[in-house]
From TrEMBL:
It comes from Linum tenue. This is SHSP domain-containing protein. PROSITE patterns: SHSP. It comes from the Eukaryota. Keywords: Stress response.
Length: 137
């Protein structure tokens, strides 16, 4: 065995649990890729957050980690002469993204439109390395 005292079995079980979670959430690598796009001048992130307004969302950057949190609470009551009804709904959204080294954290912009949150992370200009030829001896 490569791992002492059953650690290998625990790792296999954890892998199975993670795979099952992704299957249950219908997440595939192509779905995850669709949320992130890299361009020369910026990174673009896209998240569906239906039912959330900009007041319900909080986006922070701390030590190279972008965190998106959203919380929505709604309560409605009504009634007539001899009846009373109450409805409540609650939703919570939380995700984190490790920003690349060339991200300009101070210039990140976010836009929310029709339940789609789009985040633009500008990139710093990297100096282009000069191509050098190596002599063969």
């Amino acid at each position: 065995e490569f791992f002492p005292s059953g650690l290998g079995n625990a790792l296999l079980q954890a892998t199975d649990n993670i795979n099952r979670l992704f299957q249950n959430l219908h997440l595939t690598p192509s779905n995850l890729i669709g949320r992130f796009k890299e361009k020369d001048e910026c990174y673009k992130l896209r998240y569906e957050v239906p039912g959330l307004s900009k007041e319900d969302l909080k986006i922070t950057v701390d030590d190279g980690v972008l965190t998106i949190k959203g919380e929505h609470k709604e309560e409605a009551q009504g009634g007539g002469d001899d009846e009373f009804w109450s409805a409540r709904s609650y939703g919570f959204y939380h995700t984190t993204v490790l920003l690349p080294e060339d991200a300009k954290a101070d210039d990140i912009r976010a836009e929310l439109k029709d339940g789609l949150l789009q985040i633009t992370v500008p990139r710093t200009e990297r100096p282009k390395d000069a191509v050098k030829e190596v002599q063969i001896h």
